Amino acid sequence: MTGYEARLITFGTWMYSVNKEQLARAGFYAIGQEDKVQCFHCGGGLANWKPKEDPWEQHAKWYPGCKYLLEEKGHEYINNIHLTRSLEGALVQTTKKTPSLTKRISDTIFPNPMLQEAIRMGFDFKDVKKIMEERIQTSGSNYKTLGVLVADLVSAQKDTTENELNQTSLQREISPEEPLRRLQEEKLCKICMDRHIAVVFIPCGHLVTCKQCAEAVDRCPMCSMVIDFKQRVFMS
Q: Could you say which of 2.120.10.30, 1.10.1170.10, 3.20.20.70, 3.40.190.10 is the CATH number of the domain covering 4-62?
């Protein structure tokens, strides 16, 4: 089923609303059970198609790790599909709030290019949205630089980690020094294990090395992605 024509043949008796040529181009073939289809490469299956649904979008939505999808559409396409889903979900939630708050979020957060950049670096949409809202509430304006936004996100993640460690220490009988030791280890550079981590790699978003070790690498030691930019961050 690696060939387009071979996949298209499987849709011989296809009578559903989604275009069979689009399905075949998106890597799917019919398995002969109602409108169920399956990707020839990743094996991901889809069914219950709605009118005007795009096979490529559904492929990216449910199986973003498919290598065929990545080769044909690229990382940016997949990231944009998931960003759109996150934004749509957030808009549904904000409609339950006051009109003035909804307008403020839509006017100052969603159009901000740093929102998408932070998500592409690996930060969760809800975390980015929350920290931007808090920034607006305390200072009256959104972030002006990506570096400050990333530093605050990292700090917030650190606080979350500390809280989780504190909760774990209450649930388990461990020594009082254990959470502190783990937190100290998390702050250490994963290369030299001596100095504190101080640089975030862009675009992958990993924060794993000190300033000195970061200068010596061209690829992230965590995921091996090529580093386009190295952003200095300051952790308390």
A: 1.10.1170.10
177: number of Cβ within 10 Å: 10
Q: In this predicted model, what pLDDT tens digit does every residue of 23-75 receive, in sequence order?
A: 999 999 999 989 999 999 988 889 989 988 999 999 988 888 788 998 999 88
Place of tokens 């862009």: 202
Equal fold, 4-62 vs 97-186: no
What pTM did the predictor assign?
0.41
Q: What is the pLDDT of residues 192-201, one digit of tens each?
A: 878 888 888 8
* Other CB atoms within 10 A of residue 56 CB: 18
| H or E segment and range at residue 230 | strand 229-232
Q: Which of 235, 173, 228 is nearest to 201 (CA)?
A: 228
What six digits make up the tokens of 131? 């920290």
Superfamily designation of domain 188-236: Zinc/RING finger domain, C3HC4 (zinc finger) (3.30.40.10)
